[in-house]
Amino acid sequence: MLGLYKKSWADAFLKGADMSTHIDASECANCKQIRTLRKRVLSHDAEDVSASGQEIVPAEVRQPPFTDAPALYSFNVPRYFNIQLRAREFARQWNSQLLWCHAVDVPLHPGDRDLPDDAMQRKLASWLCRHDQDTSHLSSLLPLIKNLPVRITDSIDRDLQLYKGRRGKIYGWTLHPETLFTDLENGESLLDRLPLVIYIHFPEATWTIGKLPQGVYPLRSKSRTWKVNKYTHIKARRTGYLLIPDFGSTAHMIQGATLDAAFWGCQDAAGKVSMACQISGYVILSRVKELWSIFILQAFSPCLFIRGPPKGPDRLIRKLRGDITAEQAMEEWLQEEESDEGEANENSTDPMKKQYRCTSCYLQGKKSMHPLARFGVNDHRQFNHRFLRQGCWTRCTSCSQKQGVASRWNENGDITESATQGKTSAADNVCTICAERWPGKEVHVDCHICCGCQQECPRAHWTAKIMEWHRKEKTRKLVCQVCTGKGRSSTDVELYHCDGCGQDLGHLRFNKYSKYNKAQSGRSRADLLCLDCESKIPCDVCKTRYPKTSWPVQTLKNQKKQGIKIVCRSCKEKGCTANDTDLYTCQQCHNDFGSKRFNTDLLKDFKYQDRRKLMCLVCVREVIEKEKRLHREFKKSKVYCKCGCRT
Asked: What is the mean pLDDT of residues 205-233?
């Protein structure tokens, strides 16, 4: 529903007026001030910039109490990266030196220790992107700034009541004598090793340690084992500090606290929401006493707070009020689905799958509920600036065209002709992105170049959604249908050689773990096989791969349970067996055969007694026949000896 509105506003809206400008012009100074104060969402769009190109950020954001206000999130990953950015802003605001130190990881898995140096450095660098909740509460990157607000991530001294979550400030630190500095941008420096001691000042403490001032605790590094992968249970040993900057927290950790000011880092406006997200948002918004004490970092989903109260607490309140009996409450609880309520109806929690009201169609008495495609939204990244920013006065693309309102997008997500401002020359229809990417190739009108085969294809070769990504993300690569069939994609256009079939295929035709171990890290010594070759079973003699259906079921069971080797039909015809898969060369005919094609005694003499002469059964039979024939002919001769010595 639209709620209350002026009749003059509706008339102006149907005539194509910009409602933001129209309403702002009709308000008094008091209403304008209240509207400005009620705007708590910080915008980062291109429309909210000043003439100098700087983002328009309220001045109170850089003033107390927001300078030390924490940013509250539902998850740990954005919370961790936020505290790193806020630490830089703290150093810039107080004009202080910023030093970065990082934790030291030692891999414990043999496969990780055998990696080449380059692969090992890439793996260690990726581990430094993990937040402290993943690494046994040891911070990956720690900024060192004097008077920086910090928080202990785990209990370090129970006698002094230094428990998890205790807040303090950095008083100072002691570096190793051999510490080397690496200069970074904006006057920052990176230390090559951890400091020996970091001194933390706790303002409310009354104890003293040695000659240190009151409330100053000397914190030393700790070593702990943490799980790199919770599924494979691969572990690593980390040395670091149980300390993080106190600029961010999660809804789970902050519940029950009262803050002077806060920032809410909500999820993306087009993201799916659930009851857990709604409860998390309620917990964060209720940490401050007044609306003016909180800022929202980005727009949140319109479906977030329309789900109603949680069923469990709501049922308990109705039971305590006497609205339902204990038997009715138990019956309701038993009838509930075991799955999470947010997963029970996926379409109702996904903003991209819901239908929204076109205010223009509603005021004209037409069908007003439309999918997002009617508003020119075909991707979750377009949801905020193409639809949500319109507010309650929404227009679909057809209403925008009829009312003469400029719209850059049509229902297919393509740029409309009016948005090009009449530019129809051939030079304007040539893709500048492809021309800059391939300077040695000529790009024709309405054509693009595939990044895989580097062949030019017409624009109709790709869908409108892919073309939109190509315009928005200039680094996104275009891949034609031929290259897509070979397994290439926009993320990786390289070709990899399959050692089984000998074809050059894209990364989608390989197992991602096998491809990484063999082609990228060089860790695996096995052959790199495509998915088709991996599904086939090789013969242990000739290594030729055959489909699984080509092998007897009992043979496959023996191979899996007893480790017995399997031999194909052609190799069996050569004399190979599962017990002896080696090939031996006949000294007479010089052909390779299996053990079944040789005499057992001759083969044993050849293998174990080092006798050189080895003939197959066919050659032995031919030699015997030749000897018999010669003997018969010799018996007929006059020099034949009758004593039986065969001479």
From this structure: 94
